[in-house]
Amino acid sequence: MRAKVNIDIANTEKLVGKGVKDSKKTMSQLIGVFKDEEAFKAADQDQVVYEVQAYMPVEEGKKGGLFWGNSMVYPGKVGTEYHMTRGHFHSNLDTGEYYWCLKGEGALIMMDLDRNCWYEEMKPGTLHYIPGNVSHRVANTGYEPLFFNACWPSDAGHDYASIEKEGFAARLFEVDGKPQLIKE
């Protein structure tokens, strides 16, 4: 069975079609993500920080399938730390993923199992391969929404708990007007 799914990047930047799942994360759902707790508490807790859509044409966990998604991270900071996604490892650790940036400016922050961190600049037209055994999150370093697509194996799964428990070993802050990755 084939489902028709369209993406209207020029007008809505949304996936449209049967089987598309939508998720929004507000500031109140990101407790513990940002370092500056006072700035976090002072932020509008109803503000949407990012949105994710996923098209999953096969059952999650099924080998051999692919999922497609898009995300939009809104501009802003909590203190001097950029708005970002929660971040995750894949449950099936050795699975990779692709991200490609369509609009805006940002950073793909990655961390390996030895807690080494680095980031890659995201701007329209950049393609990023996230290897297996690497956690990842995205920060918006610009002044407009950051919009990117993703493609990952249907059996990858998502492990958010490891990041909630251990965090990333470095954080991306604005320092002198530029992104700087600072070790914890």
Identify the notable features of this structure and list them briefly.
184 residues; mainly beta; Jelly Rolls; six-stranded antiparallel beta sheet; 2 helices; 7% helix; globular
List the helices and strands and how they pair.
Layout: E1 5-8, E2 14-17, E3 20-26, H1 37-42, E4 48-55, E5 66-73, E6 77-78, E7 81-82, E8 97-103, E9 106-112, E10 117-122, E11 127-130, E12 134-140, E13 146-153, H2 161-166, E14 170-175, E15 178-183
Antiparallel strand pairs: 1-2, 3-4, 4-5, 5-13, 6-7, 8-11, 8-13, 9-10, 9-12, 14-15
Structural summary, described in words:
It is built from 2 helices and 15 strands. By secondary structure, the chain is mostly beta strands. It has one domain (20-183): Sandwich (Jelly Rolls), CATH 2.60.120. Strands 3-4-5-13-8-11 form a 6-stranded antiparallel sheet, with no helix packed on it. Strands 10-9-12 form a 3-stranded antiparallel sheet, with no helix packed on it. GO terms for molecular function: glucose-6-phosphate isomerase activity. It catalyses: alpha-D-glucose 6-phosphate = beta-D-fructose 6-phosphate. It comes from Marinilabilia rubra. This is glucose-6-phosphate isomerase.
Brief characterization of the structure:
The protein has 184 residues and is mainly beta. Helix content is 7%, strand content 47%. The longest helix has 6 residues, at 37-42.
